[in-house]
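>> received
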Amino acid sequence: MRTRQREYYIGGRPRRRAGRRTLLVVSLIAIAVAVVGGAAATGRLPAIGLLAGIGLPGQSTPPVALATPQASAVGSSPATSAASPLMSPLASPNGSTSPSSPAPSVPPLPETPLPCRPPANIQTARVISHGDFKQKVVALTFDDGTNPENTKQILRILQKEKVNATFFPTGVAMERFPDVWKAVARAKFPIANHTYAHGALAGKCFEPQRHELARAAAVFASLGIAESPYMRPPYELWDETTEAATSAVGLEAVILWNVDTGDWQGASAATIKRIALTGGKGSIILMHTFPEATAAALPGIIKGFKARGFRFVTIGQVLGIDGPVPYPTRP
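>> returned
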């Protein structure tokens, strides 16, 4: 042990130089305490124990840390307030949480996926918004199915013009108008999943999304209608969980579009026709079965694309998968 330290601990008289240093240190402590005390009085600092790291010459007493706002808030004892400034006030020196410490406000994430997340081993479905831009084909699609008379009118036009198209009715629409959708299926038009009740999927947990699609699939089965292996999310709202849920119910793709006719917003037949005909090679065109203006615009849409040399294909043909095709066309 050094001589100066030994003199101090055994009560020996310190050297003069050490005495001057002691006086200097005491003065610094007094100044620091005055400054910090003033700051604490004005509310600029939390409650303070002792300044860390300042002691008399030779002193081996461990420094006392500043109290933390968290410890002060829960009324902890000085012993619990003396944690290292580099550590959480809730943690012990070995990093573990003390049993007497308050629980964290946000619990740590478990190692296993939360129920809201899709299982990690699911291969997500692909997302498609158009076909091959090199082929002069167009895919007409019709959503919802809540207007039975208008749906039948659209079906008659397609059959008269021998034009392929794909339907995306909701499970509710199929339950309400089963005869209409059985007629569409008998005409060999592909029918695909558009959820059961047309609720937005994005942002929901995996199981609610999967259940919504599975419930719609059950309607297909109850009516004896073949379900095409793809789906369309209502409002074009989907996320990665939707892709996983789609795959989980045995479907291969999430189908979007690159031409929205705006018929669902109450557009006129002329506007629907004009917007539809902006489509080009590989376009997937969004329309609905409920607006009467859509049925009125459909003959002009078909005529316009035929005049430009386009062929009409199903979504299954766009994806290159097997399925019903009312009017097979050359590849």
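>> The CA atoms of residues 174 and 181 lie 6 Å apart.
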